[in-house]
Design a protein that fits this description.
Elements: H1 7-20, H2 28-39, H3 50-61, H4 67-86, H5 92-110, H6 113-133, H7 139-149, H8 155-162, E1 168-171, E2 174-180, E3 194-199, H9 202-213, H10 221-232, H11 244-257, H12 263-270, E4 277-278, H13 286-292, H14 317-324, H15 332-339, H16 351-366, H17 376-382, H18 386-389, H19 396-400, H20 402-418, E5 421-423, E6 433-435
Antiparallel strand pairs: 1-2, 2-3, 3-4, 5-6
Length: 439
């Protein structure tokens, strides 16, 4: 279940699962937000109802900035991972949408159909020449042979294999290649060492043995990718360079057509973590002591009694407004990255100031709910509501108290509804009174 893992580890797993297939995925911040929403509902099994899903999407649609679009896309990313990798039961309408994701993966593979056919034919022609001439070993050719004869894994896995001489093992009288799993969960120090065994052909095994006997230096993914690009750009292949994901899709197309692997089996063999083997390990004695201390408080509680609700002297979101004023919208992202890389300190005496800062920041970065970018005047107009809230601070303690928060919200809403106009202050650079606008 999600609650048994840290937010960081789950988000890393989701991003990794998509990158393994060359599929797009939103960033970690959005993924963690969706996981938070899912974890708000207590559950005893791995399932999600349509009502829960609708509640999550309803919560997202209340976000009044362009972040809403990213989060709605991220719901699909998270649900795809839960269904494919964690065996969750999801509503039937959502399962139908996953066929679209699988179709997108197959389309990426089919785009390599022409080059994959040419590559396979050229490899079959070059292999006898290689055996006859015995040229100097090339890591690009080794990766090519492994991808065609062993499994269409990503180049990241092959780089790891080429750095581990002990990856060849004789198991049940069969030459096998041990591929260590690279998912974040599998690499956790407290987890056993997970790996998958792949059958080695005699040719690919001899290539690896000769390579390891030469005592090569460690290689990186970038080094292997460059070597493969260089090899396949020359005779007899003559293929254009492409990114690592596209090379894997090209090899997967070979297995799909030449070896007639069905899509489900192709997905399995392309991702080692879908086949688990491990060496049992005894738990470390120190874990027993850690279990005894599991309920010990290891954090310092905030000094709530020192908090007070005071009027904000300077609202931090105004710095954002002034920074982008008279600047081209194309420069706004650069301004955010350079001048506002670090958020302002939290105002425990009035968290509304902090909320306004992030609201303004998101409007600048993500735009509105419909528009991907907003005009400066629109952003300024949407943030003017802070004038109405200046005299009604909300402390951290009040925000944590449901009853106090509801009382504050009702009071502010009543006063704002009764007074639709306000007088703008000099901080906005305006001097006339206008109505508050929302859009």
């Amino acid at each position: 279940m999600l609650e048994n893992m840290t937010l960081k580890s789950v988000s890393d797993e989701i991003i990794n699962s998509h990158s393994q297939q060359g599929l797009a995925c939103e960033n970690k911040e959005f993924i963690q937000y969706i996981i938070d929403l899912i974890n708000k509902t207590p559950r005893s099994d791995r399932s999600m109802t349509m009502a829960e899903l609708q509640s999550i999407k309803k919560t997202i649609t209340t976000i009044p900035t362009g972040k809403q679009r990213h989060l709605l896309r991220d719901v699909d990313n998270v649900l795809f991972y839960l269904h494919q990798h964690c065996a969750w039961q999801l509503p039937e309408p959502e399962l139908k949408r996953f066929h679209d994701t699988q179709l997108a993966w197959m389309q990426l593979i089919s785009l390599q159909a022409h080059d994959a056919s040419a590559l396979y034919q050229a490899y079959q022609e070059y292999k006898p020449i290689f055996l006859q001439d015995r040229p100097e070993l090339n890591i690009g050719f080794i990766a090519l042979a492994l991808s065609i004869e062993v499994a269409p894994l990503s180049l990241r896995y092959w780089a790891e294999v080429l750095n581990e001489p002990a990856s060849i093992e004789l198991f049940d009288n069969q030459l096998t290649l041990v591929v260590q799993h690279q998912t974040p969960a599998a690499q956790h120090p407290q987890q056993p060492s997970y790996f998958t065994r792949y059958a080695l052909t005699p040719f690919s095994c001899r290539l690896l043995i000769n390579y390891f006997n030469s005592e090569p230096d460690k290689i990186t993914l970038k080094t292997l990718h460059h070597a493969l690009d260089q090899l396949l750009s020359r005779t007899p292949f003559y293929l254009a360079s492409r990114n690592a994901a596209q090379w894997q899709h090209c090899f997967q197309q070979i297995w799909l057509v030449q070896y007639q692997f069905p899509c489900a089996l192709l997905l399995d063999i392309s991702q080692p973590h879908r086949h688990v083997a491990f060496i049992p390990q005894r738990p470390h004695p120190q874990y027993e002591q850690h279990i005894k201390q599991i309920y010990d408080q290891d954090w310092i509680a905030p000094a709530y009694h020192t908090f007070a609700a005071n009027k904000v002297e300077r609202w931090p979101h105004l710095a954002l407004i002034n920074a982008i004023k008279n600047q081209l919208s194309s420069q706004w992202q650069h301004i955010l990255n350079t001048q506002f890389a670090t958020p302002p300190p939290r105002f425990h005496d009035n968290i509304i100031a902090h909320v306004m800062y992030y609201f303004t920041y998101d409007l600048i970065q993500f735009g509105g709910v419909r528009a991907t970018s907003l005009q400066f005047d629109s952003i300024r107009k949407y943030t003017r509501i802070y004038h109405q809230l200046e005299d009604y601070p909300l402390s951290y303690i009040e925000a944590c108290d449901h009853e106090a928060l509801m009382d504050w919200a009702i009071e502010v809403y009543r006063l704002v509804s009764a007074a639709p106009t306000f007088k703008e202050g000099p901080a906005d650079g305006l001097s006339v009174s206008k109505s508050i606008g929302y859009g």
